[in-house]
Design brief:
Chain B: This is Ferredoxin. The complex is a heterodimer. Chain A is of the alpha+beta class. Chain A is 47% helix and 9% strand. Classes of the chains: A alpha+beta, B alpha+beta.
């Protein structure tokens, strides 16, 4: 049975009053609606916002689907981010392998250990530090557009612009040689693919880890101004701990922004009135990026936690030891916070979105992501006045099979 | 309005600085919040309230001045 059939077959009403059947998760998006959350989950948000679900291996978890409830879970230290706790929900066997086979990175730790490690990185991503990088990011973006358009009238936006821009930036920040991008991009792809077998995930994860351990060791002899080198120089972490942090930042630093850039471009091309509005008034770009983050929410399968005590969320008690998935994509469509939330509106005040998560684990790199996305989108619209999709929309390959949503490629012309 | 921050709770996400840059900044050494103006003028109150609302760590507390009678 395909996922779609499972959803169609799943009871949507109440079989026994008050005890609806669990929803098979992840659920499929509706055909022709690739920007919208799966109908079954969005339906749950309206009808039964804290609802039972069944994962791929038959294990149960709770889906928390509304904006306020998602904030309540992710802001509450009684919900743990530690994947080693029984009941922690995993989306695939591969992701379970990735999260449990290797030593934890800080996104899978609770405070105070999480805070101790995070505070070694917060200064590198703070607003004024990242704002100072604008001229460098702009130069990289312009160089990529120069190269992409040189003697050509079409290209794949993902490989020529959306992916290299954040990869170049995170390499500079970390002190990772960009020449190695094929190596780490391929490993990241395997790690984030929902189709990867557990052994593939482990191999890719180990290779990336070993690469970063060697890089950390090399920085001891040849220090530079990058984050990896400075973490080594602090002397508080061993090479493996530095490699763990480096791997997290390397993957998070390029996959997320790359996919947001390509998906944002596509969403604007599909909403020409919004695209025209943004072209006409480039001062809307900051708000437009918040709206695109809200509308597209590329962490499309949600954020996992496990309850360490009985906690009541949205009137439903979640017992200690049970897993929770916060579906931030449905939270970002919650009409209570974003009226007409299924519509892309670049002039909306979308700042309360939870696309970066919420609580103490909220995306560390968000100031950088914002600057990169503002520059990427503004530069594309300014430099490519004839920007258009170069294939029928129906032929765009969406990343339904990846932990980070987006498009595998985006053929464009100008 | 009086603005209080809890630097222990702060996770350095920086969203307050983006919402109200005249009121909040981040410490150079670790990116943790600092208050530039603990009693901001009325025209900044809405931005400060937004900053408090979006703070992921609930590290911003606002004390409203009692209405004068």
């Amino acid at each position: 049975m395909t996922t779609a059939e499972r959803i169609a077959a799943a009871p949507t009403g109440t079989e026994t009053a008050g005890h609806p059947g669990p929803l098979a998760y992840p659920a499929a998006r509706a055909a022709g609606c690739p920007f919208d959350p799966a109908p079954a989950v969005d339906h749950a948000r309206r009808e039964q916002p804290v609802t039972r679900a069944t994962l791929w291996d038959g294990s149960p978890c709770w889906l928390v689907t509304r904006h306020q409830d998602v904030r309540d879970v992710l802001g509450d230290p009684r919900f743990s981010a530690e994947a080693t706790r029984p009941g922690f929900p995993f989306l695939t066997a591969g992701l379970r392998e990735l999260i449990t086979s290797t030593s934890s990175s800080l996104i899978r730790m609770d405070d105070p250990e999480h805070a101790r490690l995070r505070r070694m990185l917060t200064a590198d991503f703070m607003v004024k530090k990242v704002e100072a990088m604008r001229p460098d990011v702009q130069r990289l973006a312009d160089d990529l557009v120069d190269r992409m358009t040189d003697g050509r009238t079409s290209a794949d936006l993902v490989t020529e612009f959306a992916l290299p821009l954040p990869s170049l930036v995170i390499c500079l920040l970390l002190g990772v040689p960009y020449e190695d991008h094929d190596f780490f991009q391929e490993r990241s792809r395997v790690l984030l693919s929902l189709r990867s077998a557990p052994e593939e995930v482990r191999t890719s994860s180990d290779e990336l880890f070993d690469y970063l351990v060697r890089l950390a060791e090399s920085k001891q002899h040849e220090p530079d101004d990058g984050i990896v080198s400075r973490l080594v120089a602090r002397g508080e972490l061993d090479f493996e701990e530095v490699a763990n942090m480096g791997r997290l930042l390397l993957i998070a630093g390029h996959e997320t922004t790359a996919n947001m850039t390509a998906l944002s471009t596509l969403a604007l091309l599909r909403n020409p009135a919004q695209l025209a509005k943004l072209r006409e008034d480039p001062s809307l770009i900051k708000g437009a990026v918040e709206e695109l983050l809200r509308y597209l929410t590329i962490v499309h399968n949600g954020v996992s936690r496990v309850a360490t005590e009985d906690v009541t969320i949205g009137g439903q008690t979640i017992p200690a030891g049970e897993g929770v998935l916060c579906t931030i994509n449905t939270a970002n469509r919650d009409d209570a916070v974003f009226p007409g939330g299924d519509t892309l509106d670049v002039s909306r005040d979308a700042r309360r979105h939870v696309a970066f998560g919420f609580g103490v684990h909220q995306c560390l790199g968000q100031p950088l992501a914002r600057v990169e996305l503002q520059i990427a989108v503004e530069t594309l619209l300014r430099r490519l006045p004839g920007l258009r999709l170069d294939v029928p929309f129906e032929d765009v390959p969406f990343r339904h099979d990846m932990a980070i949503y987006g498009v595998h490629s985006l053929p464009i012309a100008w | 309005m009086r603005v209080h921050v809890d630097q222990e709770k702060c996770c350095g996400a920086g969203s307050c600085v983006l919402s109200a840059p005249d009121v909040f900044d981040q410490r150079d050494e670790d990116g943790i919040v600092i208050v530039l103006d603990a009693q901001p003028p009325a025209e900044l109150h809405e931005a400060v309230r937004e900053a408090a609302a979006i703070c992921p760590a609930a590290a911003i507390l606002l004390e409203q001045a009692p209405e004068r009678v």
